[in-house]
Design goal:
homodimer, about 375 residues, alpha/beta
């Protein structure tokens, strides 16, 4: 089978490919009479795409059985350049729905425009006060909880292949946030992403009216040592300083009559970020074994931009966790025509075999 | 029929009531052998709710036949206190759809959040830079074209009944725009109303994604001597100063790759404001005749908050125009259960009769 062919199937890449690859690696080692260098425990999690709601309890309950020297996570993609990568952390996440209120019924913008508070404008000003177009978060103290990158991590970021020009061309972008810093540098920082805004109507359905409410949806990406709790605290402090009265349910008329600026907040649970040290002998060993096997340097990412609950292994089980993904980045994950590239499957089998055969003696 | 009864019917108030009232007034004058003091021309316009697209051409074509000393417009409501009012102007209007662009396809907010420009954030910052939550328009020079109110107009505004407390209670508002200025004062100013914002998704449908575009819909209310053209110029200057590249169609990839901030603008036509002088002998006469007939002071509004194309009469035909509305404000205009209050119909007939019988001798 030519290496550029692909297998198209639901979950072909995410997350069937690594399951098949690791089993194929064990078969191959057995067939070649190469012994495992480590004791091996498998942990297959079927709820990851549904929030992994039972995972923390299961990890806690079976903490004894799940003891080990390292967790290898096989989820995620290799680098966009098709170079293999390992990742040592992932950003945490928490999300927020915010709603601000105008008049109790929609008002004619001619008769009341400029007098009745416009919730769309309140929301726009609020969001602008939270985050600039440059990506910088304007909430007081938001960056205070950040643990700075180590020299090793900084070097890994600097050595990551530069994909910015290609991405900008592909995405039709003449600029990026972060004053020209690379995407790899930027995902080492926390992010405030406005997922959506809803207020009144636009286009053909727009009405000359002041609407009754306006909503925004936000996801925060967190880096060590931020936590969802600390983010929530800082955001709520910011809102109070801006004069907002925070409620958790749709306010009644009495609340609206009493407080000039009422905001409803609905927080998702989220989870914290995690980052395994790249300096651990074990971390170095994983990188070295893969690079030796491939005969080429791999990409080392201190933190993935996306979120995976790595903190459960690192902080709850107190065990290092390293991501060893094998899927191609252009795999249409979660979408139509999801696929796995054949060469990625071959590479995956090889890498897993090398780690299973060598890791026990390498650190 | 008790005066608080109402007639419920489509267009009962807007705009059948004044048509019936003026015809009834003429019948009444004839029956009482009271002669008209003026030459009377009727002009019934059937397209007002559809934008009056043919009105300017018709007024121009029949300018000779339509010559007169004053136009009395009978559209609109009396004051919320049920006191009769006359109005001498109306705010102009123009509207704008704005769209800003992010990446050419939606991106995962984890992998690209903080690097790929977020159009919802660009839009929020743009709107915040155009207009504060206090109603103040932040576009450079926006207020420069304003003709200040005369002393008479200021007095009329100050004398208008105070409905703010009642409105705030009814609408669930603990604050208003304009630092506590009354609704009557505020509608003497231009307004920038954000009719709607659309970006990504919120609530149950929110996705951890950076969306490809974000749109806002705005209506501007204009006061003398602003014009839609001048507003357009000032807004576009403001956008260019903010670094935006203005286009009128959805930009292609080349345009997006070349210009850091691309914005699509779609302007509605709109029309300018108008304000007849309250000092004209004719203006004073209209007020005096109505007040004498009712035995009570009426409300005098230099400008309505809403928009009516009064400029066509004032600026195109060079003839003063005064609004003499008769409908109750709580008439569910344009909605279900539109109605006219019986007392308003009686008052309307009386006022129209008084004006027709007396205006010719009163100035």
């Amino acid at each position: 089978v030519p290496p550029e062919w692909r297998i198209y199937a639901r979950s072909a890449s995410d997350d069937k490919a690594p399951v098949i690859a690791v089993l194929a690696a064990i078969d191959a080692l057995r067939a070649a009479n190469i012994p495992l260098s480590v004791n091996l425990k498998f942990f297959f999690e079927g709820e990851e795409e549904a929030g992994s709601t039972h995972l923390p309890a299961i990890l806690e309950k079976y903490a004894d059985r799940l003891k080990g020297d390292v967790w290898l996570l096989c989820d995620g993609p290799v680098h966009q350049t098709r170079r293999m990568q390992v990742y040592f952390g992932a950003r945490g996440i928490t999300d927020l729905e915010m709603t601000v209120y105008g008049p109790a019924r929609p008002l004619h913008s001619g008769h009341y425009g400029n007098w009745a508070p416009n919730p769309a404008v309140v929301l726009a000003n609020l969001l602008a006060g939270m985050r600039g177009p440059d990506g910088r978060i304007r909430i007081a103290g938001f960056y205070d909880d950040m643990r700075p990158l180590t020299d090793t991590e900084k070097r890994a970021v600097a050595e990551a292949p530069d994909v910015d020009a290609q991405l900008k061309n592909e995405l039709g972008l003449a600029w990026t946030e972060g004053d020209g810093k690379s995407v790899t540098e930027q995902i080492m920082l926390p992010a405030l992403n406005v997922r959506g805004i809803r207020a009144g109507n636009v286009g053909a359905t727009a009405q000359n009216a002041i609407s009754t409410e306006a909503s925004a949806s936000i996801d925060f990406r967190l880096v060590p040592n931020q936590t969802p709790e600390k983010v929530r605290q800082r955001v709520e402090n910011h809102l109070r300083q801006q004069g907002f009265h925070i409620v958790s349910k749709t306010p009644d008329m009495e609340t609206r009559r009493q407080h000039p600026r009422v905001i409803k907040l609905e927080w998702g649970a989220g989870y914290p970020p995690a980052r395994t040290s790249m300096e651990l002998p074990l971390s170095r060993a994983v990188v070295r074994l893969i690079e030796d096997a491939l005969g080429a340097p791999i990409v080392k990412m201190p933190t993935l931009g996306g979120s995976v609950p790595m903190y459960l292994f690192l902080d709850v089980l107190k065990t290092p966790v390293i991501g060893v993904p094998i899927a191609n980045h252009d795999n249409n994950q979660h979408g139509a025509n999801e696929n796995i590239r054949i060469q990625n499957l071959w590479d995956g089998i090889e890498i897993f075999a090398v780690l299973l055969a060598g890791l026990g003696r390498a650190f």
